[in-house]
Amino acid sequence: MSDAQSLSGPLAALRVLELADEKGQFCGKLFGDLGADVVKIEPPGGEPSRRIGPFLDDIPHPERSLSFWYYNTSKRGITLNLETADGRRLFLRLAETADVILETFRPGFLASLGLDYEALRKQSSELIMCALTPFGQTGPWRDYLSSDLLHMAAGGEMASSGYDEADVPNAPPIAPGGGNAWHTACHFAYMAIVAALVYRTVAGQGQYIDAAIHEACALTTEAAIANYVYRGEVVRRQTGRHHAAGPTPRTQFRAKDGTYVCALVAGRLTPKYIGELADLLDTNGMAGDLRDPKYQDPAVIAANTSHIIDDLVANFIASLPAEEVYHAAQQRGFTWGAVRAPEALLNDPHLNDRGFWKEVAHPELGRSFVYPGEAAIYNGSPWRISRRAPLIGEHNVEIFCTELGLSRNELSVLAENRVI
Amino acid sequence: MSRPRALEKIRVVDFSWVRAGPWATRWLGAFGAEVIKIEWPENERGRLPSTTTPQNLEVNLNTSGNFNDTNVNKKSLSLNVRSAKGLEIAKRLIAVSDIVIENFSSRVLHRWGLGYQELCKIKPDIVYVSMSGYGHTGRNHHYTSFGPVAQAASGLTYLSGLPDKPPAGWGWSYMDDTGGMYGAMCALTGLYHRNMTGQGQHIDLSQMVASVPLNGPGLLDFTVNGRGSRRPGYPPGNRAHWPGTPLVNNYRGPTVVPHNAYRTHPGEYNDWCVIVCHSDEEWQRLVQVMGAPSWATSPKFTTVAGRLQHQQELDEQIEAWSMTLGKYELTERCQAAGVRALPVQSAEDRVERDPQLRHREMYLEMEHPALGRRKVQNAPFKLSKTPASNHLPSPLIGQHTREIVEGLLGYSREDLRAGFADGTFWPVKRARFPYMEEMLR
Q1: Which of A47, A128, A147 to mutate to test the interface with B (most CBs of B within 10 A)?
Q2: CB A250 within 8 A of CB B179
Q3: How far apart are CA B267 and CA A180, in angstroms?
């Protein structure tokens, strides 16, 4: 066994109860993959996010949702109906064993069941509880409905993303896909919970965290707020590059293979840079007039910015496949990147060098699948996917019987009465 | 009575610059850590160039608005770490700190003699978070990135846009924001682990690699089902599915209609709202909000299958209605009826018009010595015992040099003056700000 295999994750011995739907399940994964014992509590029959596709072999089934698989690694799973008295009683016993409870119910729901933080802290003063909800526990929008797309609209992501008029006339603001409103909220929620955990290591006290997805998204548009607060500017959308108060030179160019390259050139055009750019473009014999001594004069460079970017750089990129441009440029110190489809990353040797892709066993299928790995390598306490997403109620016996001491017959009665 | 702080007595040595690293340490500061930002004006990146200096102020090292918002809750030590004397001072600072964080390319700290092995000799349980573009291992570790490049190379850019058009991408450095989040998450996780075990460690964060797990379901669709994302109808704009293309899940939740952005009155640049119906029942509520017009009650729109088949017509009809209402009025009407709708909000909308963000005190004013009273972005979570808060405006460059060098590290006033004279604390030939003259008296 290597050192890395024998080390525990940084959150080992931490128990997290997750009562989360599609909004918060990624936060539970962040904890689980870093070593916490995350127990996902689903309603009997399974969490509705199991109904989100795509599905294994395109056969819809709550155990075949790839979305659910991805966001629920390294968790154990139990079923429990909190809207029954027995369910609440069992939840209270589980809560006694928990360091952290993460919940995404609508505001007031747990309180209506007598399971809010005020009730739970009475049995465990060290408990940290985080409610991650669309708008938080207070305010005029508190009870509004939402979705990933809605958050990207109100949070400002859409107002910043889209197209130049010349590329797509009358284009709408565009919401990048992939569930990033949820991701952003889960990153912030994770941060708040771990800060509370650090405080608990010193003060021995838990606390309640009211986290809001809308605020997390509203915080995640880089300088858009500063542009307004300090200059009164409202930024415009531009194809494949930063929003800006006024038009800026383009940074996305079509390569020979029909895919694109992100090439950051404008703002960097010094005489020294021109020389390096000429060397790069000359690798394919396309430096044009860049070696003309006139470019030693910054004023000449400034007057020719459009020529350099829209002719020379664009033509160079158009002459080669995007991956070739990417690596040729980066090897020479240019901060450029190929615009890749996600699946192209499976063939990226750099990710393989870092051991990024993980084989995850699905023993019930007799198969293993490749999953994305870690954002960061924790050299002293490794990240790992400890198990695939739980099947519905997979750990009911382990947790209710082995840990809480219920008999198998009691468990059967609970199942018959739709408590689990 | 002042509230306790989650990171009370935690000290962070912050070598980071530009955006991602400073966005990470901003949050450590908000939790109460003492964040000491080490800067050098000759190769500063983050304060300059500035496109967010108010029109009535001179652009200089202390007048960037975006720098202010990104660097609240920190102190600034101006220090030439590339000099032997400066390096020695940095080491004395590290010896009394808990976290070292930086976002240089992969070999810089090592070259300075501050690689992890060396850091451990200075402070055995140090938590060291490196936030490089491509990580400290792997064949491309020397590649460099900014947000847009990490987003491009990781596949994030590609999932934004209309089908058959160039990628729209992200209109800002999402991975500077999110990379910064991961920097803070790594530092906090490393700190928790240290407090529990007594062990520090090096956490090797890569901006580009951190982008890849944000495509999980799409990647599994490829590794499990063999379905790639270069396909007709992808990316599907704001829709869950693009009309006339094969019906597949596009990794933005359930496949439903309507699911789009619609123009609103009076049709200016940011007059849009989004509407999503997650069920037939929600669609029927929208029909009622629209006044049950005859087109909307047509049976062809009653089921999701029908709405998918006639999505283009449906979207045009919805937009004809949405154009008659302002985006906030439309939102209120829809939400009052249980329909998912929210306005597309610009920065101005969020700061001036969003009633929820106002209620939650998202933008509170702070006084900055050069920029005056300005709204600063607050935390998106409320901790009941140890609230995160903005308690210091961003530092002027070198503003806390005396406080740190004398007060924390125990050097004398003479040492401080000598360090200014020999170029350790400020370039000899560079004009000093008035507050520096003040600190040398």
Answers
A1: A147
A2: no
A3: 27
Q: In chain B, which residues have their Cβ closer than 8 Å to the Cβ of A214? A: 356-357
Q: Which tens digit of pLDDT belongs to each residue from B324-365? A: 999 999 999 999 999 999 999 999 999 999 999 999 999 999
- Structure confidence at residue B246 (pLDDT): 96
- Round to whole Å and give the CA distance between B197 and A12: 10
**Residues β-bridged to residue B366:** B374
H/E element holding B272? strand B272-276
Any idea which residues of B carry the catalytic annotation?
176
CB-CB contact of B48 with B42 (8 Å)? no
Q: How far is CA B436 from CA A113, A219, B427, B429, B430, in A?
A: 60, 34, 12, 14, 12
Min distance A296 CA to chain B CA atoms (Å): 22
- CB contact (8 A) between residue B261 and residue A221: no
| Spatial separation of the C-alpha atoms in residues A79 and B30, rounded to whole Å | 38
B251-283 pLDDT, tens digit per residue, is: 999 999 999 999 999 999 999 999 999 999 999
B186 close to B203: Cβ distance less than 8 angstroms: yes
* Helix (H), strand (E) at residue B419: helix B413-421
Cα distances (Å, whole numbers) of residue A354 to A8, A374, B51, B137, B143? 19, 10, 37, 6, 14
User: Which residues 362-391 of A have a C-beta within 8 angstroms of B?
Assistant: 369-381
- For residue B376, the cross-strand partners are B364
pLDDT of residue A5: 62
Contact B196, B122 (CB under 8 A): no
Cα atoms in the 13 Å half-sphere on the side-chain side of B168 = 32
Element (H, E) at B93: helix B84-95
Confirm if A252 and A240 have CB atoms less than 8 A apart.
Answer: yes
- Closest by CA to A239, choosing from A90, A124, A339, is A339
Across B1-10, average pLDDT: 89
What are the φ and ψ backbone dihedral angles of B154, each rounded to 5 degrees? -95, -10
Residues 6+ apart with CB under 8 A from B398: B39, B41, B76, B77, B78, B425, B426, B433, B436
Q: What is the pLDDT, as a whole number, of residue A3?
A: 54
Determine the residue of chain A that is closest to B341 in CA distance. Answer: A150
- Residue B135's pLDDT band, with cuts at 50, 70 and 90, is very high
CB-count exposure of residue A283 (10 Å: 0-12, 13-18, 19+): middle
Q: What is the DSSP letter of B407?
A: I
Complex ipTM = 0.98
What's residue B225's pLDDT?
Answer: 98
- The pLDDT averaged over each successive group of 10 residues in chain A (420 residues) is 72 98 98 98 97 98 98 98 98 98 98 97 97 98 98 98 97 98 98 98 98 98 97 97 96 98 95 97 97 96 97 98 98 97 98 98 98 98 98 98 98 97
Residues 68-127 of B with CB under 8 A from A: 68-69, 116
pLDDT above 90 covers a percentage of chain B that reads: 98
